[in-house]
Amino acid sequence: xxxxxxxxxxxxxxxxxxxxxxxxxxxxxxxxxxxxxxxxxxxxxxxxxxxxxxxxxxxxxxxxxxxxxxxxxxxxxxxxxxxxxxxxxxxxxxxxxxxxxxxxxxxxxxxxxxxxxxxxxxxxxxxxxxxxxxxxxxxxxxxxxxxxxxxxxxxxxxxxxxxxxxxxxxxxxxxxxxxxxxxxxxxxxxxx
Length: 192
Fold this sequence. Notes:
The chain is an alpha+beta fold. The chain has helices spanning about 1-25, 35-65, 130-140, 175-190; strands at about 90-95, 100-105, 110-115, 120-125, 145-155, 155-165.
């Protein structure tokens, strides 16, 4: 009998923890109410928050090291084979895995990652009015279908996370996608 009681208490405690975890995780991360979906959604949310924290810390370091707080109006574009520059105003490509790429500049950090038949696209930048519309316009021009968009903001920084469906005829690499989205931020600078 004591084994049954112990198991019942363990299940009750597990269900209470899952309820708390679900209440702390934004609803769009959790697809269904089962345990695996709750845990998977919480993991994805924590990963995004870790990325946001890491990016904010990097921006803070760059801001402290940079003599000028304003970004350079014309960032140069790099190929994947060239070494990263020392200046923080140039986009900096970093291929994280075979199926993902980052294109970072002093204006925005852009990451594109293939996940199954979708692409997860994340951008982190200061809040720029109309920037989300520019990104959506770029994605639609390239023939992508946006399945999901989430927006997280902290003070003047915003993280846009897109889940994009890959079409069968898509010939664009993740590096090219990251570069095209990065250019939408560069166009904002040229307008000033």
